[in-house]
Amino acid sequence: MNETTNVNLVGVGGQGILLTADVLARTAAEAGLDVKKTEIHGMSQRGGSVSSQVRFGAKVRSPIVPDGEADILVAFDAVEAVRALPSMRPEGRALVDRCYLVPITVSSGLQPAPEDPDAMLGRLYGDRLLRVDSRALAAEAGNPRTANMAIAGALSRLLPFPEAAWEAALRGRLPEKLVAVNLRAFALGRAALA
Amino acid sequence: MMELNVDRLRALRRELLGGEGAAPAPEKPALPALPARPPTLCAGCGHRGVFYTLAKLKATVTGDIGCYTLGVAPPLSSMDTTICMGASIGAAFGMRKAGYKGRLAAVIGDSTFFHSGMTGLLDVVYNKGAITVVVLDNRITGMTGHQPNPGTGRTLLGEPTVQTSIAEVARALGVKRVHEVDVYNLAEVERVLKEELDCGEPSVVVAYGSCVIAAKKAVGAVPHAVDPAKCKSCGACFKLGCPAIVRGEETAPGRFRSKIEPAACIGCDVCAQVCPFKAISTTKE
Questions:
Q1: What residue in B sits closest to A46 (Cα-Cα)?
Q2: Fold assignment, B224-282
Q3: Any idea of the CA torsion for B14, B15, B20, B21, to the nearest 10 degrees?
Q4: Closest chain B residue to A63 measured between Cα atoms?
Q5: Which has the closest alpha carbon to B57: B182, B178, B189, B176?
Q6: CB contact under 8 A, A43 and B39
Q7: Do the Cβ atoms of A102 and B43 come within 8 Å?
Q8: Is A57 an 8 Å CB contact of chain B?
Q9: Domains of chain A
Q10: What is residue B2's predicted lDDT score, i.e. its pLDDT?
Q11: pLDDT at site A1
Q12: Which pLDDT belongs to residue B1?
């Protein structure tokens, strides 16, 4: 791993990207690293392309991941994963959800549908691509809104942090009554990428 | 995008320091054509049903500055002007004075109304402008990150304070026709808007529905679902432009059943009220 690890999280507003980035940042901090994080969302609160970048290492000076330098891409949506390709290092790995949310521009007929997202991903990312079906895992955990923590669980396989650090971060970020179901989703995601 | 990102700063450093500094960024990989994913009103946002109704009533809509400016975007396409903070009321009033005879609504958020809508409304009343001012009242300043405003009931520091009523302000300014509606009751919204848009005098409709995010409506929300046996692929729900409503099965070329993303839906029920076949309902047991 490089001195600083760069993680780019992308998806659609409302999928829980920013919360996942928070949990990741807290986990890295729990593990004793310097962490910086930034996020970009549109002029409304939901629905548009959203990204958050988390950087951690011995000393991190700036929160922004330069294009071409993301070590890990975490994409909550397949088409957003394609859009984020320029952010990646050539050898960087992409953890991409099975989800593809049809943009409003397509569902309303304003723009043509893209090529099959899975085909695009296979071509562009090749063997750097890892897939996870967070919605199925969240359903199994018992709450569709835990899909983001299923993705976090899968992501935990790609990073050197102990499971206890993730759990502490998750507990620190979520209200008590939602902790158990989110931990279940996290464990399922972690097992899915074993 | 002209932000001072790392690439741009590195390029400037190379330019200013000659050969020093990092090597030029590697060439960007070519991407396939991708559809844009512009910002939209949130799933369950109370503004959506009001714009849907204004479009249905074929009103000319002068807009203002806030999340609700997104009412301009397709498929709602329900906003005709956006100029600056408070301009919705003056623009509608000016159009009326210039001789426009159609239905005219000025749409403004609660926060913008307190900021610079009240003076315009006073002008409308004083100079007998026959327009309807629709205040989209979610009791918060949404777009900029949920700052409280004089209608919220607490100060920026979180202390309880006076909660100013928009309806009372409108009455005090001299508006005789003031109505308050629940944005999630579309039949009510349509009945009141139709009556007011055709009333021929100054009127104010305060359309109340708290901000989905500020009120944390997604927490513990029970989503709606589409019954594929009842869905006739008519596309009526797609006209709401709700990000939780996505294309499902293609039943005929170019015709799609709708499907609701359970993780995005907050169960606001607006799509269920729009569906002519009663194919959408709550998943609540």
A1: B42
A2: Alpha-Beta Plaits (3.30.70)
A3: -20
A4: B6
A5: B189
A6: yes
A7: no
A8: no
A9: 4-192 (3.40.920.10)
A10: 64
A11: 45
A12: 47
Chain A neighbors of B40, CB-CB under 8 A = 44, 46-48, 104
Return the pLDDT at A42: 62
Contacts of B215 by beta carbon, 8 Å cutoff, 6+ apart:
none
Q: What is the pLDDT of residue B17?
A: 85
Per-residue model confidence (pLDDT) at position A49: 84
d(CA B179, CA A54): 48
Chain A closest-CA separation from residue B80 CA (Å): 19
- Checking if the pLDDT of B80 tops 50, the result is yes
Asked whether the beta carbons of residue B241 and residue A108 sit closer than 8 angstroms, the reply is yes
Q: State yes or no: pLDDT of B24 exceeds 70.
A: no
The per-residue pLDDT for B160 is 97
CATH superfamily of the B47-208 domain: Thiamin diphosphate (ThDP)-binding fold, Pyr/PP domains (3.40.50.970)
Which helix (H) or strand (E) segment is A25 a member of?
helix A17-30
Domain boundaries, chain B: 47-208, 224-282
